[in-house]
Amino acid sequence: MAFYYSKRKLRPKEHDEAGELNIVPYLDILMNLILFMLLSMTGLAAFGILNVNAPSYGGPAAAVGDTPEQPKLLLSVLISKKGYFIAGAGAVLGQETPAGEATAGVEGQPTVPKKSDGTYDTAALTAKMVQIKTAFPAESKVIVGAEADIPYETLVDTMDAVRELGTGETRKPLFYDVTLAAM
Q: How far is the C-alpha of 77 from the C-alpha of 178, rounded, in Å?
């Protein structure tokens, strides 16, 4: 009687070949991607200011040597729960009382307070921007910042009030180079 071995019996069984799935290389790639994304996001988080100005078309081009010696205005409008704080050239502009005296020395008082019904007074903000624009006619930049819980619609209304005066064909540009600041 002769014994012979078939190839089928010598070969390992198919269900033993499947075994466990080796996911170590997959996890290595995944960890490298996560670390790369985290390190690249820290560089982007350093930018707290986002420039949102629209490109200007037409209009006169400024000559290089024709800049008058007028002080630069660093104008910022901050939206808070109390109203609008307007600061320029390192000093906070004060709220004017009906008698005409300024209350710039009063700590914590907004330049343009909220209306009595609790809404933001964008008309008074635009009037204040017109006053500032007449004092600095060549300036076009403004930084707009808001507290964390200010609604998005209020931010957009503020940007509209700061950018231009009037509507339609009677629009007059005020501070059209708007930069959003993180607070």
A: 10
Angle at which helices 152-163 and 122-135 cross, to 10°? 40
Contact between 70 and 138 under an 8 Å Cβ cutoff? The reply is: yes
CA atoms of 115 and 82, how far apart (whole Å): 10
Residue bearing tokens 């100005």: 53
Separation CA 142–CA 37 (nearest Å): 33
- pLDDT tens track for 103-158: 444 567 778 888 889 899 888 988 888 888 887 888 888 889 888 888 999 989 99
Enumerate long-range contacts of 45-52, CB under 8 Å, 24 or more apart.
Answer: 48/181, 48/182, 49/143, 49/179, 49/180, 49/181, 49/182, 50/179, 50/180, 51/179, 51/180, 52/159, 52/178, 52/179, 52/180
Distance of CA 46 to the CA centre of its chain: 13
Helix or strand or coil: residue 69? coil
Instruction: Kindly report, residue by residue over 9-46, the tens digit of the pLDDT.
Output: 555 555 555 567 889 999 999 999 999 988 877 666 55
